[in-house]
Design brief:
Elements (H helix, E strand, L loop, with lengths): L5 H5 L4 E2 L9 H8 L6 H16 L3 H6 L6 H8 L6 H8 L9 H14 L6 H12 L2 H10 L4 H7 L5 E6 L3 E3 L2 E3 L4 E5 L16 H12 L7
Antiparallel strand pairs: 1-2, 2-5, 3-4
Helix pairs in contact: 2-7, 2-8, 3-8, 6-7, 6-8, 9-10, 9-11
């Protein structure tokens, strides 16, 4: 798997997020229903749902809270959601395909859907996905920021160090050629911790607010 110039890949229309198979339930349904793993019009529609959710939560409200709860609990409360952090963590450990215990994630997704009203729709997926995205990455950022400035962590040791893209057409970047269908690895250090292009993280300000609050207070609960 080639590693190419990060920003050029992330902002190029000739690269897309690798797709995921459709799913009716569990973490497979979640992946197939969120912006994170989609492209084109479905991505724009699903991303807009997340942006609208985040717009209801001023980042300063997350930064100023006195609570030392897990960042997922803080964000969920700000969104008016009452969901167990443990369920979100169960989803997060297998959110990326092939990375964790999928049966545990399946059960957690189905339970979260029930808690949030029982509808397997994109609005429900957006709420779950937002909390999942805030789970492991934000907690890792907080842990690393306890001993280093947050800006240094984001530059040198981001919580999500890499992401993947797939070439839609044969593409040449500098001296490297990528075949159509080839998956490439993209490093997210040096200012790209929150990505770039149409898939850049819409919750950057919220993640930094959560990290600033928790890194300077008590350890988040697990």
């Amino acid at each position: 798997m080639q590693q190419l110039p990060a920003e050029a890949v992330l902002t190029s229309p000739t690269f897309a997020v690798p797709g995921v198979p459709p799913g009716d339930r569990g973490v497979g349904w979640l992946r197939a229903s969120v912006a994170r793993f989609s492209s084109g019009e479905p991505h724009r529609r699903r991303r807009a749902l997340v942006v609208d959710l985040l717009a209801t939560v001023p980042p300063d409200a997350l930064r100023s809270t006195e609570s030392d709860d897990h960042p997922v609990a803080t964000l969920a409360r700000a969104l008016g959601l009452d969901v167990p952090v443990a369920l979100v963590a169960d989803v997060a450990q297998a959110y990326q395909p092939g990375t964790g215990d999928e049966p545990r994630a399946d059960a957690a997704v189905d339970r979260l859907v029930d808690i949030l009203g029982g509808d397997h729709d994109e609005a429900t997926a957006a709420r779950i996905g937002l909390l999942v995205q805030a789970c492991q990455a934000t907690t890792t950022l907080i842990e690393r920021a306890r001993t280093r400035p947050i800006d240094d962590v984001l530059r040198d040791d981001p919580p999500a160090p890499t992401t993947k893209r797939v070439a839609l057409t044969p593409t040449r970047l500098g001296d490297l050629t990528v075949d159509a269908g080839e998956v490439v690895l993209v490093a997210l250090a040096d200012g790209l911790a929150f990505g770039a292009g149409e898939h850049r993280c819409p919750g950057r300000a919220h993640a930094l607010a959560l990290a600033h609050r928790a890194a300077t207070s008590g350890r988040p609960e697990s």
